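Subject: sequence -> structure tokens, single chain

Hey, anyone have a minute? Need the predicted structure for the following. Not urgent.
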Amino acid sequence: MQDEPVISWKVAGAMVGLLLILATALVKPLGVSTQYVVTDAVLLHSAAPALAESNEYLSQYGDKEDWGVGYGWMLVVGMFIGGGISAFITQRFRSREKASLPSMWRSEFGESTPKRMLHAFVGGGLLLFGARLAGGCTSGHIISGISQLTIGSFIFGIAVFASAIFTARSLYRGRLAS
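Reply:
Had a minute. Here:
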């Protein structure tokens, strides 16, 4: 049985909208995946500047103004801390035990929690690679980009949802509720 949501999607959506307005006004639009590339570029520019400049992709990042990598990493760390605080406050913090595996996962892939973790890690890596290939992540494109009416972000959003539906239907072989 699924727990009822603690907060309405309408309230959560309004809160994300206000966060986006505040972040854009004070710093810049939200986005996370670029931070990994900026950090790689900063480190490579420090260790091997010629190599960093010869790389067409990394040469776009790592300039002196990018060296203040704090903003992006504050957002990355803040997502983990915020999720933990929310789980604690709502008393929804769960241990990683077999009982917490979704029933569809268990019926398709078995009871192995390490297998689930490995799949999640690989999926996250593929998601990050795809985000950089697309020039931004879901927070950058779907939340920030669409709010700025960027055509590429609309295309990205449609592609993300279409591929998610295809992947879910493929993995669970049509056993998803219609």
